[in-house]
Amino acid sequence: MVIPNISDEFMRMALRELEQAAYHHEQWAEKLHGTLVCRAVPDEMDLRADAHCQCRFGQWYYQTGSIALKNHPGFLEIGIEHERMHKCAAHLLRSLTDGRVVARADYERFVGALKRMNLEMSSVRDELQRALFNLDPLTGAPSRIGMLSALREQQEFVRRSHVCVVAMLDLDHFKSVNDNYGHLVGDTVLVEVARWIMARLRPYDKIYRYGGEEFLISLPDTDAATGGEILNRFIEGIAALPFTAEGKAGFSVTASVGLADLHPHLPVERSIERADRALYLAKAQGRNRVVTWDAVMDEMPAGPEKSA
């Protein structure tokens, strides 16, 4: 499953919303079981065709729902199982109101849907918690924790005839930003650049803070030519971001990018190294550009400090 590229603030909000909605769901399930066991009069709302939209959980899911999770596969599965569960529940309640004995098979279908929904909610909740743990505290982008594992998972798709590129993006002359405007302003630049990129990535793309002013970006189902076009748009957008510092004129920053295919058989680290060599060449050629790895770059010596 894929957690979208959202800030830590929105991720925490999504987790809180999901936990509150899960509580309302548990309350509903307890009441439903009580109605069945005690053969009480059912709630008319639970007999409606749109009951899954009317319960407290459904009102959240279909009306206000977490924007951060809308495109998450697990979130979509929760909705499917939630609707199925309500249909099964309505069938059980109709048996009750008609004076018929609830069939075991009908009850087991209801319980199965209930369990699957709970499992999907737990899975999404656990993934949100893991993602929050792995976030870089400054920028809100994922940190390097779990990066290699995620790229190795993506490499499995590449082995099955998919494509993917990895890019190393480094802010140019970033040491000068810190020296001229202070580290607090430098931190603001990192945060704004990371958020700007995350807002433009697809749900299954990923950005990681690799270290300092350097980020690693993975673009699944993207070849090198298309990846180059995307990253060129990124560096153009970054260069257009306005920054300010108290008592000084406004300024902007540029970025250089090295791009490489995620190789299906070489270690993931090797593909990262290739992107890094391409980044070194982008710096050497004047910065503020995208360079794609080529085999001749393997003969190049390791580069100096990239931000120099």
From TrEMBL:
Protein name: diguanylate cyclase
Organism domain of life: Bacteria
Catalyses which reaction(s): 2 GTP = 3',3'-c-di-GMP + 2 diphosphate
Cellular component GO terms held in the UniProt record: plasma membrane
GO molecular function: diguanylate cyclase activity
Pfam families, sorted: CZB (PF13682), GGDEF (PF00990)
Its EC number(s): 2.7.7.65
GO BP field: cell adhesion involved in single-species biofilm formation; negative regulation of bacterial-type flagellum-dependent cell motility
Gene3D superfamilies in alphabetical order: 3.30.70.270, Aspartate receptor, ligand-binding domain
Highest classification ranks of the organism: Bacteria, Pseudomonadati, Pseudomonadota, Alphaproteobacteria, Hyphomicrobiales
GGDEF domain ranges (all copies): 162-295
